[in-house]
Give the backbone structure.
Amino acid sequence: MILAVPASPDLFAARLYMKSPEANDRIAWNQGPPADCSDSEESGKPPWRLVLMGPPGAGKGTQAELLHQYLGACHLSTGDLLRSAASHPNCVQSPAMKAAQDLMSHGGLVPDSIVWDMVRERSACLRCPGGFLLDGFPRTVGQAEALTALMREEKLPLTAVVNYELPLPEIISRLSSRRTCRDCQSVQHFSAENEICNHCGGSLYQRDDDHPEAIAVRLKVYQRETAPLIEYYERFGLLVPVDATSSAAHVCARTVAALQHRLQTIA
Ligand code: AMP
């Protein structure tokens, strides 16, 4: 697997934005079985199977979108799944799903059993020849163990686990100014000059879990439940740390360079 990494991050950013999005979309992931992904054909290239980790606000979703354009692997987000299940008009709002929404809006984690059922139901996406970029999953050691067991059973080893690192003051500042588009769900920085979505012109809103009280809960939950995964994946030799400060394109360039370095080291 060879990755072309341009000499400068600015050149990388320019190239990235010139690339047209890959055909691979998230129909099967977002709708669940029996939806088919529109791009399930063999591309001939070895697939990227990546887990993207990091504290809330580190930019995992944005990086997953950029890496999807660069690597072609599908962006699979459990947060998106849970939000779309909550807002879907045909979704039967079971007591378990209502409890999950309440936990989400206050910054807590949805129980492993609910999240794992949703992921397992979509395990075809993990077998996709195009690979995957898991964003927001796993978030607990229990989820990571379940994923490891499934990947072993399916003989589909992870390529790497990218861990985005960001200092606490920047995490808080990013989360508090973060807004989400009601129409296309893209995440943007809010300012007086930027009140509408710069992708589709839709209106921006602040997610319940981006309010200050929920941010404090999310950071505590991250430390207690998710940070131990750093050691978990380090033990498997899969961890690739990436500095998540500076612009999204620069962080993406760093990610690609770090992945290339990892591939050279294990080759
Ligand atoms: P995200 O969009 O990844 O920031 O996720 C938003 C919220 O969805 C989280 O704060 C959790 O409440 C819930 N969530 C997403 N993924 C998971 C997961 N893997 N395990 C438990 N809860 C999750």
About this structure: Residues 18-23 have pLDDT under 50 and may be disordered. Strands lie at 48-53, 74-77, 131-135, 160-165, 178-181, 187-189, 204-205, 239-243. The longest helix spans residues 248-266. The two ends are 10 Å apart (CA to CA).
